[in-house]
Amino acid sequence: MSKSALISKQENLTSNSTIKKVLIIVPAYNEELNIANVIDDIRSQDINVDILVVNDSSKDRTSIVARERGVVTLDLPCNLGIGGAVQTGYIYAHEHNYDIAIQFDGDGQHKAEEIPCLLKALENNNADMVIGSRFLQSEGFKSSFLRRIGIIYFSNLIYLILKQRITDTTSGFRAVNKRLIKLFVDYYPDDYPEPEVLVYLHRKNVKIVEIPVTMKHREFGTSSIHMFRAVYYVIKVTLSILINLIRF
Amino acid sequence: MENNQILAIIINLFLLGFIINSIKKGKLKEKYALLWIFSALTFILFSAWFEPIVHLAKLIGIINPINLLFMFGGIYLIFIVLHFSFALSKSHDNYKTMAQRVALLEDKLKKHKDENN
C-alpha cells in the first residue's frame, strides 16, 4: 500500500474513533543531550498522550533533564539494556491500564509527527502491532551495500518464520494494543528485542502492520571495527531468533 | 605410597582448607561449598587409592591410566561451568525483575509523597 493511499484511508476513519489512553515509552541511556528535544517534539504534537521515560541507569543527567520537564521517569537501578528498559515501560502501561503503548527512542531518531500515523494504522487495521518502517518507501533511504544486505537478510529470516514480510525488523518505533502490552509484561526479550519479539509473537496469532516512516539518520561508520561488530551483530541476532523459535 | 600421590594429597588438602576457610568467612554459599568439598574429597580419595582408576582404564582400553583422570577432569569441569551458566542466567532474570520492581515502586512512592504534601 502506498503512503498516500494509506493516509487518505486513515483520514476517513479518524473521526469516529473513541478516546484511548496512550503511553509513549521512551527508553533512554545517556541521552541528556537529546531527551529534552524528544519530549518537546512529542508535546508539540496535537495528540493526547502520556510520556514515560525509562532511564536505563544512565551515567549522565538524563533522568534529571526528563524530570525537569515534568515527565514521569523511571530510574532503573542497574543497566538492563534496551529490552529490560522497554519491558519496564510495558509493565507501567499495564499497571496504569493504558490501551495503547508506543515505543519511541530517546536518541531523537524518530519523529513525533508520525505518532498519529501509527495510532491511526493500529485503529484502522484493527492491528495488534504497528511498526514504523524506514524501508517501506525506498525514497530518502540511503545506505551502504553491506547494511542493505543485513536488512534484506533479517527481513527474509523473519519472513521464513512469520510468513509475513516485515521490511524493517529492527525498527524501535512501534505501537501496540492492550493485548500485546499484557503479553510483553509476561515476556520481553533481552538483547536484541526488536526482531526477536516478532518471533515470540508469531505463535500468538498477532496482526502486525507496517507503515512507512522516515527517521533522522544516525550515521554508521565503515571502519573495520564497525564491520566486525556488524557481522557479530548479525550472527548474534540470528542465534537469538532461532533460540526464540524453539522456546515458544 | 609414591611421592606424586603425596604431592596430590597435599595440594588437595590445601584446596579443602581454602574452601572451609572461605565458608567460615561467608565468601562461599553453602550450595557451592558442598560441591567443592565433595570434589576435593574425591580428588584425595583417588590420589591415595589409584587402583580402581588403573582397572577402569584397562577396561575401557585406555593405555595410560592418567589419561582417564584427564578425561574425567575435563567432563567434570564442563559440567561445573555449565552449572554456573545456568546459575548466572537465573540470577540475571532475578535481578532484572528486581530492578524493574524497584524503579516502579520508586515512582509510586514519589507520587504518594507528592499527594501527601
Commentary on this structure:
The complex is a heterodimer of chains A (about 250) and B (about 120). Chain A is an alpha/beta fold and about 250 residues long. In chain A, about 45% of the residues lie in helices and about 15% in strands. Chain A has a 7-stranded mixed beta sheet with strand order 3-2-1-4-6-5-7, with helices on both faces. The radius of gyration of chain A is 17 Å and the shape is globular. Chain B is an all-alpha fold and about 120 residues long. The chains are: A alpha/beta (about 250), B mainly alpha (about 120). Chains A and B meet through β3 and α4 of A and α4 of B.
Keywords:
heterodimer, A: 248 residues, alpha/beta, seven-stranded mixed sheet, 7 strands, globular, B: 117 residues, mainly alpha, 4 helices, 89% helix, 0% strand
| Arithmetic mean pLDDT of chain B | 88
Instruction: Compute the number of helices of chain B.
Output: 4
General shape of chain A: globular
Identify the biggest protein-protein contact and residues per side.
A-B, 16 and 9 residues
Number of strands of chain B: 0
| Helix-strand topology string of chain A | HEHEHEHEHEHEHHEH
Main β-sheet of chain B: number of strands, strand sense, barrel status? none
Helix content of chain B: over 70%
Helical/strand content category of chain A: alpha/beta
Shape field of chain B: elongated
Strand order of the largest sheet of chain A: 3-2-1-4-6-5-7
Separation, N- and C-terminal Cα atoms of chain A = 32 Å
Indicate the multimeric state: heterodimer
Report the radius of gyration of chain B as a whole number of Å.
24 Å
- Helix % of chain A is 40-55%
Count of β-strands of chain A: 7
Write the layout of secondary structure elements.
The complex is a heterodimer of chains A (248) and B (117).
Chain A: H1 3-13, E1 22-28, H2 35-43, E2 50-55, H3 62-68, E3 72-75, H4 81-95, E4 100-103, H5 115-124, E5 129-133, H6 145-162, E6 174-177, H7 178-186, H8 193-201, E7 208-212, H9 224-247
Parallel strand pairs in A: 1-2, 1-4, 2-3, 5-7
Antiparallel strand pairs in A: 4-6, 5-6
Chain B: H1 3-25, H2 30-48, H3 51-60, H4 65-116
Helix pairs in contact in B: 1-2, 3-4
